């Protein structure tokens, strides 16, 4: 056929039309490139801004120093060890409270919950996930702080208070991810265990739960990331005292609280501001480690 005949049949026009798949592929590539560029930019900015302060203070002195007095003009001290310890204590307390409750709730919703009850519990879980952190902080300030003060002593703003509130905050993450992991286990696992004479409880906890272990552990690590990066709720209820605690009713200051409390009055370009950015860099390293653990667990499960 001649070129004119082909164009009359529409062959030439169709060959010049860019398929929708190609356009969408370009859109997806651009979106992914923007995302990667944003992450790299944030990483470079944080570490570049933190390096001068770490160089002047000293990495060892910064990480393991137990004094934080940035406003002492004659001898400013920048040691974040109390903030690291405070973050670890609150994170550990939140996991001790939130993980058992979240895991057992997920098992109940996946294998025991009647449908009418499930229709109520599932939306409640989603609502908990959507509540802003400052609302949790206000709830802790008005309800949990007085309860801890009257029951355990102290002023109520403490490790225990922050652990309780953050333990509640991570419940939606642990419940949703763990429930999906348990439901993803093939029914043949449960049926095979029952056929071999196992009770329902043994079939669930000895067969299905181990099979869903990677998803359950992932939910715990995601909850860990939520706790360690939380700011507003912690600032309102942890006491914000930059010191090593003696007991769980003592107030502490976390790394996130330290940044948000002092960044507003730190002089631009000062060592104080650099130390706060360096604190953010240390926190960022913790988050990177948590992300790497999630990726490792998923790779191992595959």
List the helices and strands and how they pair.
Blueprint: H1 3-8, H2 11-16, H3 20-57, H4 59-64, E1 68-69, E2 77-78, H5 81-112, H6 115-130, H7 133-152, H8 159-169, H9 171-183, H10 187-195, H11 200-211, H12 213-228, H13 232-237, H14 255-262, H15 271-301
Antiparallel strand pairs: 1-2
Q: Brief overview, please?
A:
This protein is mostly helical and 302 residues long. It is built from 15 helices and two strands. The longest helix is centred in the N-terminal third of the chain and has 38 residues, at 20-57.
Which runs of at least 5 residues are low in confidence (pLDDT < 50)? Answer: none
Q: Helical amount among residues, as a percent range?
A: over 70%
The largest sheet has its strands arranged as 1-2
Distance between the termini: 54 Å
Count helical runs.
Answer: 15
Mean pLDDT score? 86
Estimate the strand proportion. under 5%
- CA-atom Rg in angstroms: 26 Å
- Overall form: globular
Number of strands: 2
Structural class of the secondary elements?
A: mainly alpha
| Order of helical and strand elements | HHHHEEHHHHHHHHHHH
Largest sheet: 2 strands, antiparallel
What does this structure look like?
76% of the residues lie in helices and 1% in strands. The chain is mainly α. It has a two-stranded antiparallel ribbon. A hairpin with a 7-residue loop joins strand 1 (68-69) and strand 2. The longest helix has 38 residues, at 20-57. The model has no long low-confidence stretch (mean pLDDT 86).
